[in-house]
Amino acid sequence: MIREIKDMFNALPAQTSSADDLHEHLSMVDNVERLGIDRHFQNEIKSALDYVYRYWDDERGIGSGRDSPCTDLNTTALGLRILRLHRYGVSSDALHHFNGKDEWILNAYGEPKVKEIKTILNLFRASIIPFPRERVMDEAKAFAITYLKEALHNIGKSFSNFRM
């Protein structure tokens, strides 16, 4: 199994398009870390994160791919958390790019969508590893908690409509 996962890491450049390669590299690292098998893939993880870090912009974050014309909150939050945990020098200032006057993302308080919930979970997970005096991380955490509670409430209401 370890050999197959190493092959998957090595195949990432060939199997991903330039539109989503950064997100795929980060997702692969996130998955092996969450499975608790990352110790077997230290070289592959370092290579994947070096690749992602080359495209990191401290003011704007990153998009899902190296050729993405705009950045996205999901990939930026995922990247911020993982890169920081691996001691890369990335700034939370990138989150300011997504923090509008009243909301973090468009349609944030509409009907919860799977992708939006995943994005907010990544934002929350990133927000729990702040450096001192990073106000944007506190704002991100407060927003994520409020959003996720509201989403849970809305999902609960949706399921209650399906009772038999």
Automatic annotation (TrEMBL):
Pfam families: Terpene_synth (PF01397). Gene3D superfamilies: Terpene synthase, N-terminal domain. It comes from the Eukaryota. Keywords: Magnesium, Metal-binding. Residues 4-154 form the Terpene synthase N-terminal domain. The keyword RNA-binding does not apply. One of its GO terms (molecular function) is magnesium ion binding. Its cofactor is Mg(2+). One of its GO terms (biological process) is diterpenoid biosynthetic process. This is Terpene synthase N-terminal domain-containing protein. It comes from Taxus chinensis.
